[in-house]
Amino acid sequence: MFFKQGRYSGFITPISYVIDLLVVNLLAHYLPIQFQFPILFHSYISLAWIIISFRNEFYKVHRYTKVVHILKLLFVQFVFFFLLLYAFIGFFKQPNISRLSLGQYFIFTFIAVFSIKFLNYILLMKYRRRVRGNIRRVVVIGKNKKTHQLIKVFNERTEFGYQFVKQFSPNARDFSTATTFEYISENKIDEIYCSVSELTDFEITEFIDYADNNLKTLKFLPDNKKIFSKKLKFEYYDYLPILSLRDIPLHNSFNAFFKRTFDIVFSLVTILGILLWLGPLLAILIRLESKGPIFFIQKRTGFDNREFQCFKFRSMTVNSRADAIQAEKNDMRVTKIGRFIRRTSIDELPQFYNVFFGNMSVVGPRPHMLKHTDEYASKVDKYMLRHFVKPGITGLAQVRGYRGEIEKDSDIQNRIKFDIFYVENWSFFLDIKIIVQTVINAFSGEEKAY
Questions:
Q1: Where is 312: in which H helix or E strand?
Q2: Which CATH superfamily is domain 136-247 in?
Q3: Which of 46, 122, 293, 303 is the most buried if burial means most Cβ atoms within 10 Å?
């Protein structure tokens, strides 16, 4: 995860992007290539670099990635960069540009990026090996040749950044999933590695449910047993194949950085363009109708199950039940101005401050009260999966009709289904679609907007 505690390497990808783009542009600026339109060229090569690296997954380098794979990424990246670089001359009709100077620029760029990428790779390896930083605590379920190989990798390849804590044997007399889960929770284990061949289908399901509901990473050592019919992701730890059951798009550093950048820009535009003038006006109206604070600040459950202070314009009279009971239809606590701002979702606008501060995102699963998180976590299967990403001001469940009061169990169950779908299938275009639908719903009105 991009912001998960201890996973500092999540910041490496956006920093690497910035450094490489600086190299690409600074070399073009200082080398004598004789540009007719320098701004056009800089824009062109920057966009070309971003598109190629995105398609090539140039910055998708894991702690267990081999050097051969990095060399392959560099080769593919610069083959396409070379083609697009020389295509600039013909496409934009730039006959004055020296082909030799362009070739020199390409070679210097390759040497610089190659050196930076490998220096970054080596320094990270040394950091994990010597300083023992950026460590993932792991347990292994199973006792066979493959699990011994995996434990050997964890212990010997310290540059991968894994700390092997304990091995459990499902064939042991005292083995039980309950005691295993208790140990994992008490010892702050980050990742669980299971040998599929030693677990029953029921036990596999138990491990999947536990990992989903407790925000643990679960991976499998494969054999010929079928786990599920869904797509699985293969990874290799020093030639040992590992299966990941769930691949979450926002765990990719580039996706997380891109979404965070969009959140900052969008929240700033909203704060400067709307809240700066609308906030004082609403403050006057809220205070004229009822005594109390302008903002309603409530503890909610956010990313990685962390608590944060969620901001809203106060829409109710001050009451002791605000942290325990959701607003109901014809709720006597709601003020007149409160009904209007709740119906139009204007009461949610202060949450753009939460977005700017990094507690929330523009789009994501809606954050719940602490009381409701505890209640639904024990009642709704896979409820905790929604905390793999930041909560949002709006979300897929909300635009599909599941906003507001939870009247029956099916309401929260359907909401969680949409939340999990969003977590597992995030894309920037899905976020845009949800934002547009939210604006349309705000103007047209919604049944549960009370």
A1: strand 307-313
A2: Vaccinia Virus protein VP39 (3.40.50.150)
A3: 303
